[in-house]
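Got a spare moment? Tell me how you read both lines of this record:
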Amino acid sequence: MVLLYVLTGLVGLIIGGVINVLADDLPHYRYPTTPRYPDGAARPISAWLGVSAFLLGKRISPSGAQLSWRYPLTELSTILFMWIGLAAKGDLTTIEPLQIFFWMVYVAILVLITVIDIEHRLILFAVIIPSCLIAIVDSIITTASPGSNPNLESALYGGALGFGVFFILYLGGILYLYVVNTLQGRNIQEVAFGYGDVMLAALSGLILGWQSLVVAMFITVFLGALGAVIWLGSRRLMGQSASKFAALPYGPYIVAGTYLLLFFSEQVRIALYGW
């Protein structure tokens, strides 16, 4: 068991480094390359990981461009969320190794989506579409179990449900902005739910199955509302203006709901229903 956590930590560190590269290149529609500094200069191999770049004093490029804290934090967060997920599942000897592999892949995908959405307010089809295919393959080749892994039927229903509900919200946001822009003479362009959020909800349904997705969506809405209240409150405490039309990234809340139901479905069920 200890060996599994050690291996997961090492693999998670490397995957975190890959996530950083993808988060640098994919939003700019570039093919992924070797790790680079913000000015485009190649990083030495010893600085390919954010953690090693910081520890070895190679955070800054020859021209003075500096790596942000996002790089080591992404790598360490990937490890942490993988470890938490494993710990939440309890006795891993009763779980098929292939299923554990898929769970770790989902953690990497969710971290990547979160980093890109926070930094660029984008949820990319280049990430979502392959991830949906992975989730479908998972539902086909691994053993289905309630609250842990859906069968193909449940996964497809979940994907359709997630897409349908969030597509309605997406259309509602467009309609709301149209009315506001028309009546108040505004020119607001950003909607509360982007189409990327719709696709992310579909991915969440494929990963969780429709039954767990229903709970995940309630958690997502609650966390989203809580996050908005905290953001507005913090802006006012700092004496800064806060527009009710400000576009906040919603992807991290969908990610949080997905992660919680993926690894803590039993705990969530007990908290909600008492059994």
